[in-house]
Amino acid sequence: MQISMKRYGWTLFMAMAAWVLVTPARAQDDQAAELAKKLANPVASLISVPVQYNYDEYGGANDGGAVSRLNIQPIIPFSLNDNWNVITRTIVPLVDQQDFPLDVMNESGLGDITASQFFSPKSPTAGGWIWGVGPVELLPTATDEVLGGERWGFGPTAVALKQSGPWTVGLLANHIWSVAGDDDRADVNATFLQPFVSYITKTKTTIGLTTEATYDWENEQWSVPVIAKVAQLFKIGPQILQLAVAGKYLAESPDDGPDGWGLRVELTFLFPK
């Protein structure tokens, strides 16, 4: 299955350009402020579907290779009772690998899906903390062996954050171990750490800084992209959206992994109750 990921990336760029040029009407101020705050909270009770395009170039033995990745990330909350929600977060990656020196690497298709379920109190703690814990699963859904690990994975995940005025500060983390799958493929034993901070301006523009650090315990390697982004809420007809543009810098990565600078563009569809 061949998928032109660059085409999807340009589609998002065109959406960004159209927004800048025509300046569609934004959501009403009170609603926009509440939605911007919820979007900064990974376990908010808000249905949203981020569509995130990432572009990265590789170094080392993979020098010249480039990966375009379109992550479709539905976030769906469910009410368990008067006190608790469960928030499902799923990442479905569509991957396009091009210009790698080893021709077998140049494939396109579906990658491995990651799914998380956070059990989270509906109200913050007395100290103002918002938190959630639950399981995370790695599903071997890749359509080609070079696009995934062919291993089932499982582990814990947790998030904790505090929102004060326009500020949000928090940490999302998980750890995945492989538990089944092709024994000839490498074991999965990885820790993911995502500290994040964001600030919402009076125009409902969100400015954020985060890392998405992964430590591979099998190979004793870090991958640490530092990501700075700017996001804006806007409205087209009845549909409320948020468009974000981000730059990524690989502060640490495996020798043959992504290198230098990368790009992220994200369009999020919001479905408030």
Can you offer a commentary on this structure?
This protein has 273 residues and is mainly beta. It has a single domain, classed as monomeric porin ompg (Porin), CATH 2.40.160. It contains two helices and 15 strands. The protein has helices at residues 5-22, 29-39; strands spanning 47-58, 66-72, 75-79, 84-98, 108-110, 113-121, 129-139, 151-164, 167-181, 189-200, 205-211, 213-216, 221-236, 239-252, 258-271. It has a 15-stranded antiparallel sheet that branches. It is globular, with a radius of gyration of 19 Å. The chain starts with a helix and ends with a strand.
The Cα radius of gyration reads 19 Å
- By CATH reckoning, the class would read Mainly Beta
Low-confidence stretches: 1-5, 19-27
Largest sheet: 15 strands, antiparallel
Number of helical regions = 2
Number of domains: 1
Helix-strand string: HHEEEEEEEEEEEEEEE
N-to-C CA distance: 37 Å
Structural category is: mainly beta
Tally of strands: 15
What's the CATH superfamily, by name?
Answer: monomeric porin ompg
Coarse shape: globular
